[in-house]
Structure formats: structure tokens, C-alpha cells
Design brief:
By secondary structure, the protein is α/β, with parallel strands linked by helices. It is about 40% helix and about 25% strand. The strands form five sheets. It has a 13-stranded mixed β-sheet with strand order 7-6-5-8-9-10-11-12-16-15-14-13-23, with helices on both faces. A four-stranded mixed β-sheet has the order 21-20-19-22. It has a two-stranded antiparallel sheet with strand order 1-2.
């Protein structure tokens, strides 16, 4: 309780700072300046936050790789940042996702390096918005984005506004309430850009388990409104019913007001499906989605309503990675924001599937971020290549794209991130202790449903379960025990997106039973061992 009070107090302070900080008169020029100085600023960050800080785990990684600051600077200035980062990754200067999260020891050259998520944090001088990473982390990993970083990101959204001519559209959002802060921060940002969110739809869960989230959300929204931010109060959807969103969009269309909807991918699909089921005309609507991979079936389901859908790629610990443009009408490609993040890749074996994947590596380049990370994996895979389109993002200098993005070590169904290490504890320890059996008798499968990403919990018939309802409720209760886990349980219950089936877990071709089957777990991409975007 004390932790949550502190968390929401910090969030309220962040709302105040975001409403008060002065904007940039020319966001495009700030982005161009950062592009011009990205390598020098990276070196400054490395010197201050790594080489001058022996307690930073990267300090030890660089020492073991035999790379001092002068070596790093010489490499960046002669070979370029991308090639230098690739060389560092091959020498062990990188972090796997579990190493960064503190789930597994950080070991290089036979030595264990003390490491925890807080070791990579940088104090934020100005108050900022605090947010929770992932939907289910035992300690509730949080990070704070400074108000100045929020202002810098407005440049990306200004480019997006121009690309999709969003000034002509009514802006609405289908976003979760607290403990997620994205609904609040998006509304503040939109208001600062002169395009306020007109309506906020949300999934809230039952009062018994989510009543305090509703109450605190209302308090923070009301406080933000007193501060002058045009944040709408959320409208809560009935269980497993997305038709109110479709009806609202259809009504605006009848009034001659086309809409743009910000949402996770699966809820966006449900809105489009509801419109088709009810013969509602929402054609011409633009869906701007994220949180999970935009697969071709999901894209087709949204476009069947006459709407258009464009993905956005965002990682809580890093920031915005890239946005899609109008030319990206297939797959889930986005323009890479290489002013603020360098993205490379390396071939590795996925821990859950045992298959080779093209694992993406991320490096922060902005001095405004609250964490400085070099070559960190987030258990995502994708292909990095040149973007060949003429759009507002290309005009701003973003000539590289990432496509075929998926996750190989975490579940992202319906936009809520559950890391494999968290779910494995429930599947291999908690469930067997409660209902019997051993690891291998329970398997969680993420699959493409007709209208959303569904999650199926398979339970071996040999356990002789009398009620799958008990297993389902126990599994969701275990998620709720984690800080923020109620958000995942809330959304899955609302959309009826989780089901328990009494059937044998499936085997791989080699006879293994994998406790987790993810949409991206079998993705095999082709790339050099360490390849970086220029």
C-alpha cells in the first residue's frame, strides 16, 4: 500500500510537470539537431554514466571486453556508432532481457557482475511522469520520464499528426486505466499539441478487484483538469463488449466527423468486429495501434470495416522506437527513430522455443532518458532495413524501418506484457502445488483468435480436474499478486480472452513440452550475427 501511494503521488507530480513544462517551438529542428549530434551525445553519456561510474554494470562489461573510453570514442569516430555497437555486442557488452530485469545473473568471462534494474537508472532532475513497465512484474519496475523527454517526444507526434492529417479527425482512445499511465499521458500530450482527446474508453474490471484503480484514476484525472489539461474521464465498457466504441465512432461519422482511435491491437480488432456485427459504418476511421504485433489476420479484420490501421512500436524502458506511415499498409513496419535510439540485432537461440531468432538490441542516445542502456535485448525480434517511401517521417530524416516485429520471450496478447520468467513460476510451481501434477502438465498458449489474441491454458487430463473454472481463477489470482498484474487479469477477463482446456500440452518436433507457446516464439529471421541500423 505504501509503495502504491508513493507511485501515484509521483504520477500526480508528473502530471503537474507535464502540464507546466514549456513546449518546443520547432520540434522538427530539435529532432534534426539530435540526429546531427547523436554520436557525440552517446559518447558523453557513456563517459558520464558508465566509465565514470564503477558501480554501473556496464563499467565491468567494458573492462572485460578490454575497451576503455578512448577506445570507444575512437571506434565511434572512425567506424561509426552502428559498427562499434555491433563489435561491442560480439565482445559481450550487451544485456539479455532477463539480465536487465535481474531475473538471471549477469555473467561474462566466468565472472558474475552485480546487477539490478536500478543500476541502470539515472536520476531525473526535473519532475516527470512515472510509469510501470510490463503488466506483471513482482517488484513493479517503474521508470520516470522527465518532463523534457515528454516534450521532446511531442516532435514524433507532431510528425504523425501531419502524416495522417489528424487535425481533421476526432481523437479518441481505448486505453487502460491505472496502474497504466498511458491513457493520462496521451491525453495531456494531445492537449498540448492542440488536439485534445474527445473520449476515453477503458476496461475497468469489477469494483471488487479494481475499484481502487477507478478511484485513483478519477482523482488524477480531476487533478489534471484543475491544472488545465483536457483529460476526459474514462467511460467503462461492459464485460466482453466493445460495441459502445463502435457506436460512438459511427455516430461521429454520421455527423461528418471522422475519427482516429488509439488502442492496443486486439481491442482495436474487437471494435472493428463489433461494427461489422451491428452493421455500423465506421469506414474511414484510422486505428493507431501498439502493444502487440499487428499480424496480417488482425490487419485484415480491422480493414474489413473500411478502416485503416497503422502500428506504433514503443518500449516502456526505452521510449518510442518508431511509428508507421501511410505507405506501410502491409505487415507491421515502422520508421525507426534513430535520433533517440540505435537498434541492432544478433542471432540467438530463443529461451522458450529453442529456435534461432533475430534478437533486437537497443541503445539509448538521448540525455533526457531515465536509463542509459547499451545493447539491451527486450525479447523482441524483427528485420531492420531501409525505408523506401515518401512521407512525413522520411522527410524528417527517418529512412530506416523495422518490420516483422514479434516477441519471442514474453506474452504481449492484448497489449499487456507478461515476461516468460514470471509466467513460468505460475505454470511450474504455483499450479502444481495447488492442483497437483508436475512441470509439463500445464502449458500456456498464445494464439491468433478470429477477433483477438487469445490465451489458452492447457492442463493434462491425467490430473483429473473437476473444474476448469477453479484453475482459471487461481491463475488470474496469481497474476494479481504481482504489482500491476491486475491489469492483465482485468483485460483478459473482460474480453474473455483466456480459456482453460483439459488436453495434453503439445510437443515440439524434438519431443519437448514448452511451458509457453508465443506468437513470435518460432520466428526465424535472417541477419548477420550482429547487424545495426545506420
Amino acid at each position: 500500500m505504501i509503495r502504491e501511494v508513493r507511485y501515484y503521488s509521483q504520477m500526480l507530480a508528473g502530471v503537474y510537470s507535464q502540464t507546466r513544462v514549456r513546449g518546443v517551438s520547432d520540434p522538427a529542428s530539435a529532432i534534426r539537431e539530435q540526429m546531427r549530434l547523436r554520436e557525440e551525445r552517446f559518447l558523453d553519456l557513456a563517459q558520464q554514466r558508465v566509465f565514470q561510474n564503477p558501480r554501473n554494470p556496464y563499467h565491468q562489461l567494458f573492462r572485460l571486453a578490454g575497451c576503455g573510453y578512448e577506445d570507444l570514442a575512437d571506434g565511434v569516430r572512425t567506424r561509426g556508432l552502428s559498427e562499434t555497437l555491433a563489435a561491442l555486442a560480439s565482445e559481450g557488452v550487451y544485456l539479455s532481457n532477463d539480465e536487465f530485469k535481474g531475473q538471471t545473473p549477469l555473467i561474462r568471462a566466468g565472472r558474475e557482475i552485480p546487477s539490478s534494474p536500478g543500476d541502470y537508472a539515472v536520476s531525473v532532475k526535473s519532475p516527470g511522469t512515472v510509469s510501470l513497465s510490463g503488466g506483471s512484474r513482482s517488484a513493479g519496475n517503474r521508470h520516470r520520464e522527465s518532463a523534457h523527454f515528454q516534450v521532446y517526444k511531442e516532435g514524433y507526434h507532431a510528425i504523425e499528426n501531419a502524416e495522417f492529417d489528424l487535425q481533421r479527425r476526432v481523437r479518441i482512445q481505448l486505453r487502460p486505466i491505472l496502474p497504466s499511465s498511458m491513457g493520462i499521458t496521451h491525453a495531456i500530450r494531445a492537449g498540448r499539441l492542440g488536439q485534445p482527446v474527445e473520449h476515453w474508453f477503458a476496461v475497468a474490471g469489477k469494483m471488487a478487484d479494481s475499484g481502487h484503480y477507478r478511484a485513483v484514476t478519477r482523482v488524477i484525472v480531476q487533478a489534471g483538469r484543475w491544472m488545465g489539461a483536457p483529460i476526459p474521464f474514462p467511460t467503462y465498457l461492459p464485460d466482453n463488449d466493445f460495441s459502445p466504441v463502435a457506436r460512438w465512432i459511427a455516430e461521429r461519422k454520421r455527423e461528418g466527423k471522422p475519427c482516429a482511435l488509439w488502442s492496443f491491437v486486439s481491442p482495436a480488432v474487437r471494435v472493428a468486429a463489433a461494427a461489422r456485427d451491428l452493421n455500423l459504418d465506421i469506414s474511414g476511421t484510422i486505428f493507431l495501434v501498439g502493444g502487440e504485433s499487428l499480424t496480417e489476420p488482425k490487419r485484415a479484420a480491422i480493414e474489413a470495416s473500411g478502416s485503416q490501421v497503422y502500428p506504433r512500436y514503443y518500449i516502456n524502458e526505452i521510449g518510442p522506437i518508431g511509428f508507421s506511415c501511410r505507405s506501410m499498409r502491409h505487415g507491421d513496419g515502422v520508421h525507426l527513430f534513430h535520433d533517440s535510439v540505435s537498434v541492432g540485432s544478433r542471432i540467438r537461440i530463443a529461451p522458450l522455443s529453442g529456435q534461432p531468432v533475430n534478437s533486437l538490441l537497443f541503445t539509448n542516445l538521448l540525455p533526457l532518458v531515465s536509463r542509459f542502456l547499451i545493447n539491451v535485448e527486450m525479447d523482441d525480434t524483427g528485420i531492420i532495413e531501409p525505408a523506401s517511401c515518401s512521407c512525413a517521417f522520411s522527410a524528417a530524416g527517418f529512412h530506416t524501418q523495422i518490420r516483422d516485429i514479434s516477441s519471442y520471450g514474453k506474452m504481449t496478447g492484448q497489449g499487456i506484457t507478461l515476461f516468460g520468467t514470471d509466467v513460468l513460476r505460475i505454470l511450474e510451481i504455483a499450479l502444481p502445488e495447488r492442483f497437483g501434477g508436475v512441470p509439463g502438465d500445464y502449458q500456456l498458449v498464445e494464439s491468433e483468435g478470429e477477433r483477438q489474441t487469445d490465451v489458452v491454458l492447457r492442463v493434462s487430463p491425467r490430473l483429473g480436474l473437476r473444474s476448469t473454472v477453479d484453475v482459471r481463477e487461481f491463475f488470474l489470482d496469481e497474476l494479481r499478486r504481482c504489482f500491476g498484474g491486475s491489469l492483465a487479469a482485468r483485460l483478459w477477463k473482460h474480453s474473455e480472452g483466456i480459456e482453460v482446456l483439459v488436453e495434453e500440452p503439445s510437443f515440439t518436433r524434438t519431443g519437448k513440452v514448452l511451458p509457453l507457446h508465443l506468437l513470435g516464439s518460432a520466428a526465424i529471421q535472417t541477419a548477420a550475427p550482429a547487424e545495426y541500423a545506420s
